[in-house]
Amino acid sequence: MGAVREALDALALVDHHCHGVVTADLDRPAFESLITEGSRWPGSGVSPFDSPVGVAVRRHCAPLLGLERHAPPEEYLARRAELGWREVHRRLLGAAGTGVYCVDTGYAPDDVTTPAELAGERAAAYEVVRLESVAEAVAARGVEPDGYADAFRAAALEAVGRPGVVAVKSVAAYRTGFALDPDRPGDAEVGQAARRWLARGGRLDDPVLVRHLLWTAVDLGLPLQLHTGFGDSDLRLHRADPALLTDWLHRISGTIPVLLLHCWPYHRQAAYLATVFAHVYLDVGLALHYVGPARASAVLAEALEITPFRKLLYSSDAYGVAEFHLLGAVSFRQGLAALLQERVDADELCLADALRIVTWTGADNSRQVYRFSATS
Amino acid sequence: MGAVREALDALALVDHHCHGVVTADLDRPAFESLITEGSRWPGSGVSPFDSPVGVAVRRHCAPLLGLERHAPPEEYLARRAELGWREVHRRLLGAAGTGVYCVDTGYAPDDVTTPAELAGERAAAYEVVRLESVAEAVAARGVEPDGYADAFRAAALEAVGRPGVVAVKSVAAYRTGFALDPDRPGDAEVGQAARRWLARGGRLDDPVLVRHLLWTAVDLGLPLQLHTGFGDSDLRLHRADPALLTDWLHRISGTIPVLLLHCWPYHRQAAYLATVFAHVYLDVGLALHYVGPARASAVLAEALEITPFRKLLYSSDAYGVAEFHLLGAVSFRQGLAALLQERVDADELCLADALRIVTWTGADNSRQVYRFSATS
Amino acid sequence: MGAVREALDALALVDHHCHGVVTADLDRPAFESLITEGSRWPGSGVSPFDSPVGVAVRRHCAPLLGLERHAPPEEYLARRAELGWREVHRRLLGAAGTGVYCVDTGYAPDDVTTPAELAGERAAAYEVVRLESVAEAVAARGVEPDGYADAFRAAALEAVGRPGVVAVKSVAAYRTGFALDPDRPGDAEVGQAARRWLARGGRLDDPVLVRHLLWTAVDLGLPLQLHTGFGDSDLRLHRADPALLTDWLHRISGTIPVLLLHCWPYHRQAAYLATVFAHVYLDVGLALHYVGPARASAVLAEALEITPFRKLLYSSDAYGVAEFHLLGAVSFRQGLAALLQERVDADELCLADALRIVTWTGADNSRQVYRFSATS
User: Fold this and answer.
1) Which stretches of chain C sit within 8 Å of chain A by CB?
2) 8 Å CB contact between A130 and A104
3) Averaged pLDDT for residues C129-138
4) May I ask the CATH class of domain B3-22+98-370?
């Protein structure tokens, strides 16, 4: 094993964007529904185990549960049930070697661990507030259209004032996509949009209110995480290309850091934005475990093609199963090590620089963006 | 040679989308015009032989005609003429090792083999009905605008009722692109559009009628092959990005299988769709021989990055020259073997899984989608 | 070292698109501002040295200044200052081994070398006229709206009539992007647009006038270089996708050669255009040095995936610092050699073909497009 891999294996990663783990034992349908971005497809003959991420689970997680590498799905699930979710969680997160988790608490169709439960004894936990969830809670409580803007702002301020909150997040990519008017909407425009939305109900997907949400994020002053690229079938992928945000990124230059999450297959577009804007950062979370350790190096190589080394962050974007928290970390460590070691071996990069890139991307870039305090 | 390559070489491939071979001997201009997606460029100093596909023809086809690898174009064409097209066809298709051909019979600017002639003694042949050709034949026969919808449906039903038909195909990508209204058009809308089109004549490129064609495909109930991505200069490539189809794919969920053909350079977008929709599949046909065996592994690696292994199919999309039916197969076998063997060697994939992926993608996924009967 | 690399190292490259070098010694802020496509970000903690291009400068340029490979930035800049810009220029351009420079003289926010000064004794220099600069000079001199079209044409004709001019260039990608009406605008339309623009002032970014500029380029009859893809924060990257030009490329077929510059991350789209249109060419300049020699092979492999070998050109797109003229050449030589030698070693390509591809892409394709005369 090379020196780069050793450094990566020894590093306590900062996972700057992830979710909790389901607090229940999972039967096969439940587990399979959590290891795909598709819906479950019973009767289709397509099991999520028969995909790159399924192969990676059997290869990298099975040994941690005491099984052979590449154990069959049935055996894997039986052993998982035998150990119980708490022990699986303990083993997999223990092996992930993550030192800090920043947890998006605004998406939980299942009962999942709190940030503190996720992190356990070994790691620190911080919280990321999903602004769409805040807005929808405001609507659910009942608010007059003309009072929506103030009520949303007050609720967001309250949410980010909670101990341990280090960032906000938006899923505008899912709701409207990024081909939005980049200007801050006026009060009257917001009031009218709120009237329409509150009358109609449902999730926040009005373009004016989504813009308003993004500008409210600017006012809050915390780093803003943005879903871009890859996700589930609710996306229109081409509208989640972060290049569509360029006008808005110009407008908000000098205010808050913007963290482009996932990005694949637009990670080169994201790299361009991180290269030209001081306040833009990226990761390839979610893609890391879906492509698996066998392919993570190729994706990271594209993401790092032009990107300043202080601009790439690590995240798993794991949701639901501890397998993904582990696989994100393994993919990152193994993929980045392969790519940097190859350059060191070819004398295109010196070892000292490779080790700095490891520390920066795996931990310090997040520490600089989020300025974690002792609060946890 | 590794075990994966041996399995691929032994496998009778299902080429789920291809065309016939020109039934004539070809002089240099005629041959060159068939090995490029460009028009012929006489006097430009650019020969299609001086491209990746030309290099691949000389490397992989020349030995099958009894020449040295990398034989010069003149020598290759002289030998080809000496053997005659029937013998060239026999040798190259024999070496391709394809067991089943699904042949799009709706595109034949030249005189080409029938599906049965293409397959010969060794392989089975099935037919794919190109719906634009059906619609244009209806118009050519003469039809009243208000009767167009019924006449098209009747003609399509008749076409797919022929023995050996296993799928329909649309080239909507060429005619309008995919940024279409995803909803089924109403009868009056179709009638008006038909009136305009029938008065104007020409090929079917009215957006309402293209939508109507796609929805008629849904009614027919057979798998639908869709050209996406790479093709000739008649494309507007960015409008052939399959991500633009997402709304329509949602609408038709639970009806017919949709096979995204070619996809390059949007194969990651296609992989996303195949990952989140149960009814969506993809291939990288056409790209396989144009990039050649030297690069097929890289393209397949991107196409398979997140794709469930039951969702990738093999096709050559060969048209006109048997060289392409051979090269598609060689690129697929060589490219997939390289990628899977590397993962087996790194213990990221077990050999049993690699062999299942070989059988699935090379043959069984197509068998499951098209449910070939004994009819041939 | 393989035979391909030897051939590439021995070849006098034609750099068909680059800029001059700043004629002054540079302190750290000035040097850093020239080695990034971002603005300078003082206080951000992000130095352009901590990026792939910074690593490449320290690895490949430091030894040419008499330092160890990977020398730290401080040491590098101190040595650079000690030698003075003329000596640095002399050493780096000497090592680049470029035989011909085509220099875009229409962009010079700094005092830079003339084409002849850039080339020095060892190389020939030709000039590329940036049409937006011509148009803006016409406006600055004062012109009546109705006279704008004639005045611009006359000024452009005069500019391209200067000795040594071999091409024109447009930065339409920056000004409007490529989603333009592909038709030639009428006189009245141009007059009205000129009236608006001349009244408003500022740079040429009116869509009608940008179209008019592109059509004027067609009339001039010289090869047209077009910025596409990667550049600074002034871009809207997604509007610089060259596929958006397809309608216009159809319209002008049979007139002038069009050279798509940079292209990354749309180099596959550019490759498609170069494959289907006789008059379209591409390069991956700018990307070559920003990704660095460690990654140039991967980018070139994508750019050459389907591209006819007579259609890829070499350019550095270096601006400001001689480091970039050197790095472009090193990235091209090293990257192309790695990719071709690997194919030769695998017997996918014969050595004679590899050597032809070297000569074509590194020099002869440009010679054929630009038809350099003895004038220099």
Assistant:
1) 36-39, 41, 44-46, 48, 50-53, 55-56, 59, 69-70, 230, 232-233, 235-238, 264-265, 287, 290-295, 298-299
2) yes
3) 98
4) alpha beta
